[in-house]
Amino acid sequence: MDEFDKILKESGFEKEELISQMDSIPFKSNKDKILSNIYKQNDKYKETILYIIIITISICIYDGLKNVNIDNLALVYGFLRTIDLTPIYTTILVLLYTALISFMFLFIKEESGQNS
Amino acid sequence: MAELNDDQIIKYILTGDMKYLSLLINKYEIFAYKYAYSLLYNHHEAEDIVSESFLKAYEKLDKYNIGTSFKNWFLKIVHNKCIDFLRANKRLVFTEDNNSYEESSENIIINKTIISQALDKLSHDMRAIIVLRYYYSLDYKEICEILDIPIGTLSSRLNRGLKNMRKLIEEG
Fold first, then answer.
1. Interface predicted TM-score (ipTM)
2. In whole angstroms, what is the distance from residue B9 CA to residue B70 CA?
3. What was the pLDDT predicted at A34?
């Protein structure tokens, strides 16, 4: 490796020269474009999450949302928020919880129907 | 906003606070741009690479290990984006090719007033090593991590580069 440094120096290469050349590269910030690209991509994720939420809600309504206790939902939401989950993830988890409860009730209903 | 270090900024971004993203861009845009430009020699391409690199860094931010160097992690993304771009445009030249001093493509836009001629003639991997070593002041271990090569490969590339360099010096 030291030989590399030596040969570079022999070739007339100067570290300072490289630094000044790199420093002199004209630069114009593109921050707005970069941010807009990231936000655009973020919106795509949000759209996907929104679709998942809509589908989950639809399933919940279809399978009997009336079986879910709203007070429990508020408790679950509150608990998830206390463990530093972002509101969007909390909402998704609460909806998943709702769907799970709905399915459980549906399952119990079917089981009891079969037993009787 | 008080002076925050990279890890603090990243933690805020990971919790969904997007306003901290611009802090990261302010800090590393010029840094990434100069590296991309030193490999591509084209302003528009370098700008696009930087933009894509920030997008990728944002998407993969949860994979970044807090406590390590964000600068090096991000430089690796920029480097990979540059290499992918050069490969896609059939402009990538490696030291292994033994033709590393030939022009990789007629389409390369080179601004010889900005980067020295000697540097222009180097292969991309050699140029990356020199810029990382002397402009970004990274040690060889860090360079290996960014280029994703073992130290043995870096050493052999440097040796091949040295031979070419000697040839270049002898030819004047």
1. 0.71
2. 11
3. 92
